[in-house]
């Protein structure tokens, strides 16, 4: 091209399109290559004043830009940069895209029975992948350390409002913080807020169905950070029944004098007696905190007792039975806590403590895309369909437990009140790790789990099974009978391999013939069954 030709071409372009407000402007890639993406776009946009880029489409030889006049516009820096920002994942990073698709396929083809997992809705996933992930917003609504948070404030306030409403809480009596990144940080933030360093807490012991964050430690090591920074004393279950020993809890609390008692579970299949917990806490002047991470969806649907009547603080995750994104939430009481000997009211001061501990104490900017997802999940939890779902979750768990007992398995506590089926495999002669492995090989995902009396979390005596994810996919009671059959067949294969190998069962032995073929055949049978059911979310993602 001769010198000056480019100016003539653009003058011609200007003449032909000067009156075309709102029209589609086709700019050839040849022109873009001459002027550069920035120069060509700026020149085109100057025809219409302040314009907004509405949409771009790529053809073989051209780039089509759609313009609307008199609206704000952010220009793309260059063709190379725009390619990085607008290309799909399969083009930008085929490796990650392939792994995500493989994981989606695994979830679709298998039976997800990990009690702490669920399949969230498409609407929640859309929040997680939205523009909200771009915004930084340290602080709280109306008190941010950054500008541009007017809509972020509205989202967080709406999430708080829905959280209180779904559990029927009076805003004058309860407050809620929706910024914790997940359940474990939420728990630690509560401890930091109400228990002084090296203050005393009591939680259900891990082998008895408690959670790591409730203060777990062993003789040799303090496992949880909770047991490192605070003094932890576990309470236990009855070794015969597997039920929490409330009498022993009361005696231990009277001796230990904890600042905080935790009523919470990770693998306990029975309802908690919050009224009894409250009496014990009152007897020693302790705060009572409920960790309802596993049962928050059941509580919302009134399928499990509510902790709010008796507790000072309630924490939860939002991705288990509540079926939202992976996040955490803290509810705290407001108003009068008690009265002193002179009749003077002693007020709760938990709101400021919790807020200060979450931010700036232990976190920075909240994950706004996740908070939006929590808000959506809470809205869905208020619908009648959610109540039906939770009823089916419990019914499925009870059917599964009953079927396993009928097949000769020991279910801890003899059954379940919630979504958890806790299986003790020691009478079968198989540990939880090997059971988890064989079930994984036949496309049933569960987790090895300690049972009462266990000494090692790495080599436990049982497995934990859950029904929320399968229920989301539409499995009902009759399906649970088939699932129990699949589980039994998998365990039987593992026991046969163990017998054939003189009582030993190593990881590599699962790959030996003739058992390898048997496992593959069972895997194909399970996958054919599981693949029939609905899967929420984005296809292939």
What tags apply to this protein structure?
Aspartate Aminotransferase, domain 2; globular; 4-stranded antiparallel sheet; 541 residues; 7-stranded mixed sheet; single chain; EC 2.1.2.1; 3 domains; Ser_HO-MeTrfase_PLP_BS; 20 strands; Ser_HO-MeTrfase; 43% helix; alpha/beta; Aspartate Aminotransferase, domain 1
Describe the SSE topology.
Layout: H1 5-17, E1 24-28, H2 29-35, H3 37-46, E2 51-58, E3 62-69, H4 79-86, H5 89-92, H6 94-109, E4 111-112, H7 122-128, E5 139-140, E6 143-144, H8 150-166, E7 174-177, H9 183-194, E8 200-202, H10 225-229, E9 231-232, H11 246-256, E10 260-264, H12 274-284, E11 287-291, H13 296-300, E12 313-317, E13 328-333, E14 336-339, E15 345-347, H14 350-362, H15 368-381, H16 384-406, E16 410-411, E17 420-424, H17 432-441, E18 444-445, E19 447-449, E20 462-466, H18 468-472, H19 477-500, H20 515-530
Parallel strand pairs: 4-18, 8-9, 8-10, 10-11, 11-12
Antiparallel strand pairs: 1-3, 2-3, 5-6, 7-13, 12-13, 14-15, 16-17, 17-20, 19-20
Helix pairs in contact: 2-3, 7-15, 8-15, 9-14, 11-12, 16-19, 17-19, 19-20
InterPro entries: PyrdxlP-dep_Trfase, PyrdxlP-dep_Trfase_major, PyrdxlP-dep_Trfase_small, Ser_HO-MeTrfase, Ser_HO-MeTrfase-like, Ser_HO-MeTrfase_PLP_BS, SHMT-like_dom
Catalytic activity: (6R)-5,10-methylene-5,6,7,8-tetrahydrofolate + glycine + H2O = (6S)-5,6,7,8-tetrahydrofolate + L-serine
Function: Interconversion of serine and glycine.
